[in-house]
Write a structure and sequence with these properties.
This protein has 355 residues and is mainly beta. 8% of the residues lie in helices and 57% in strands.
């Protein structure tokens, strides 16, 4: 009895050390998780996270790491979307590491902690971002507090189909903030529902996703509403709708979005409308993908983005990636400030390992 108590105390101390270690890492600018995980293919049948049972709690550790190179053409404005801008090759690296501690109770409830470390490196510079959730789960759904996962997770966008180093900038960009929030998620038959509100009440969102139960062809529909503060300059309201079809190795997603911005300063309210299309096809160990976005802000010039990517799976969890990036968006609001600016093109390559 005494030794079992000592073991439990040691296990809880280890969990607490891990938790405070996650929360103690310096914060950086928020990123979309899909900026990292689109490089990795689906988890292999025998690929499992590192796991251990400690004091009746299950501890899981998994992640994605990548390293590669980027070439951006000169005299272009990246608007902070990608680092650098030199017309020569530069080293890029990063990834994410996830930690989960969960305990399932004797009834239908379970509780736990999720921690996420996002790593972003360019040349000799690097930054990290930490996120976490504490949650309680039952057959009625999951209630959580934190910012572990992107809150547009149910909003299908063309970037969902991309692979390798492809990136369709500003598709899905208007997701709610990544600040800590109260969140509720539940599955009802073929529907998934996700709703959240920031702990300060400044941003909120609600969405649902429906997936057809067919065995051979998967049809999905999604609707997402979000609103609140944006860039500290606007009050925003927006909706997105999307349709996805998956048939064998082919995936297609079409997405439309409308956002309205009301400047805090004395300027007129204005809109941004956009549409995007993404496609991917997998044959043997290779996946090809491409995406296109067109948009218009405040009745201004047409904004365009294109991308294409390739992922080749070398071994379990190991892949080789390539991508082409292009963005031409002179997006100006009624206050004369940029909303979704950017004007650049370039290529990327990387090697990714998923564990």
């Amino acid at each position: 009895m005494h030794s079992k108590l000592i073991t439990r105390i040691k296990a809880l101390a280890l969990a607490a050390t891990l938790l405070f270690g996650w929360l103690g890492i310096s914060q950086a600018q928020s990123r979309l998780v899909s900026d990292v995980d689109r490089r990795a293919g689906p988890r292999a049948t025998f690929q499992k996270p590192l796991a251990a049972d400690i004091a009746d709690h299950t501890v899981l550790l998994e992640g994605i790491l990548f390293s590669g190179a980027q070439y951006l053409f000169d005299d272009l404005d990246t608007a902070g979307l990608v680092p650098g801008g030199q017309d020569h090759w530069e080293h890029i690296y990063g990834g994410l590491i996830d930690l989960r501690i969960v305990r399932k109770l004797a009834n239908t409830y379970s509780y736990g902690f999720d921690g996420r470390l996002l790593i972003d490196g360019f040349g000799c510079d690097s930054s990290t971002e930490t996120r976490y959730d504490v949650f309680i789960r039952s057959y009625r759904g999951t209630l959580s507090y934190g910012n572990y996962a992107d809150r547009n997770i149910l909003a299908l966008s063309a970037r969902d189909t991309l692979s390798g180093e492809a990136n369709l900038f500003y598709d899905g960009f208007f997701a709610p903030s990544n600040t800590r929030a109260f969140r509720y998620r539940v599955r009802l038959s073929s529907f998934l529902i996700d709703a959240a509100v920031d702990d300060d009440g400044e941003n909120w969102n609600a969405g649902f996703l429906y997936r057809s139960p067919s065995r051979y062809q998967k049809d999905s529909w999604a609707f997402h509403y979000y609103g609140g503060d944006y860039l500290g300059r606007y009050m925003r309201h927006g909706i997105t709708g999307a349709y996805q079809i998956s048939y064998g190795s082919l995936d297609l997603i079409a997405n439309v979005a409308w956002d309205t911005f009301d400047p805090y300063a004395n300027f007129a309210t204005f809109d941004r409308v956009s549409a995007s299309l993404g496609a991917s096809f997998k044959f043997e160990a290779t996946t090809l993908s491409a995406g296109v976005l067109i948009a218009e802000t405040n009745n201004g010039d047409l904004e365009t983005a294109y991308t294409a990517g390739l992922r080749h799976d070398l071994a379990r969890g190991l892949s080789l990636n390539f991508g082409y990036l292009y963005l031409d968006s002179n997006s100006i609001g009624s206050d004369g400030l940029g909303v979704t600016p950017g004007d650049f093109s370039g290529v990327r390559s990387s090697v990714t390992y998923r564990f």
